[in-house]
């Protein structure tokens, strides 16, 4: 879908006024999108590890991902203060990882001795969980600790709000 000229002018105005904002927005979108995708991969891997795919497990996995994914999307849309829950997401994955540390060692041993498909699924869960944990914690730090990134986050939020207002006005004019 091609952006309208008015929206592009609005973005360019902000990008010219705040050098580095465009790159910040692209990195933030990539970071938070990666976190959400890794969360989905982890849920799908857990379903595979459990050995079955049914409507109930798919619905439960979608519900299980909805809160953390909503927090990541909120962190993308709003100012830097909404990025603080990323620490909780990363902390949750860290605790889950540490809780299963002894299982990890047994899986590595199992993988060496007797490789089977359940080991592959568990490995996929482990990798996606680890990457999600690292990205969430580092991303939260990147978005909240640097004053420059906090300012960019605030400005990007204002820019997106202005763009949404422009789109709504255009839609209302076309509808009338």
Largest sheet data: none
Strand content: under 5%
Q: What share of the residues lie within helices?
A: over 70%
Q: Tell how many strands the DSSP assignment holds.
A: 0
SSE pattern: HHHHHHH
Measured between the Cα atoms of the first and last residue, the distance is: 23 Å
Q: Could you outline the blueprint of secondary structure elements for this entry?
A:
Blueprint: H1 5-17, H2 21-50, H3 55-77, H4 85-99, H5 101-113, H6 117-144, H7 147-175
Helix pairs in contact: 1-7, 2-3, 2-6, 4-6, 5-6
Describe this protein's structure.
It contains seven helices and no strands. By secondary structure, the chain is mostly helical. Helix 2 runs antiparallel to helix 3 and helix 2 packs antiparallel against helix 6. The longest helix is centred in the first third of the chain and has 30 residues, at 21-50. The chain starts with a helix and ends with a helix. The mean pLDDT is 79.
Quick overview:
Helix content is 86%, strand content 0%.
Question: Main traits of this protein?
Answer:
176 residues; mainly alpha; 0% strand; elongated
């Amino acid at each position: 879908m091609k952006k309208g000229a008015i929206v592009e002018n609005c973005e360019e105005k902000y990008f010219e006024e705040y050098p580095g904002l465009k790159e910040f927005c692209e990195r933030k979108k990539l970071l938070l999108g990666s976190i959400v995708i890794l969360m989905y991969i982890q849920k799908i891997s857990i379903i595979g590890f459990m050995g079955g795919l049914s409507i109930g497990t798919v619905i439960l996995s979608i519900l299980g991902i909805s809160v953390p994914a909503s927090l990541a999307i909120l962190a993308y849309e709003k100012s830097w203060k909404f990025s603080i829950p990323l620490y909780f997401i990363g902390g949750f994955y860290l605790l889950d990882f540490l809780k299963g540390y002894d299982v990890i060692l047994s899986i590595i041993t199992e993988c060496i001795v007797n490789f089977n498909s359940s080991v592959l699924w568990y490995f996929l869960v482990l990798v996606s969980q680890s990457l999600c944990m690292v990205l969430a914690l580092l991303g939260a730090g990147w978005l909240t600790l640097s004053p420059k990134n906090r300012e960019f986050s605030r400005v990007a939020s204002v820019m997106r709000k202005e763009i949404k207002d422009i789109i709504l006005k255009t839609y209302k004019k076309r509808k009338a």
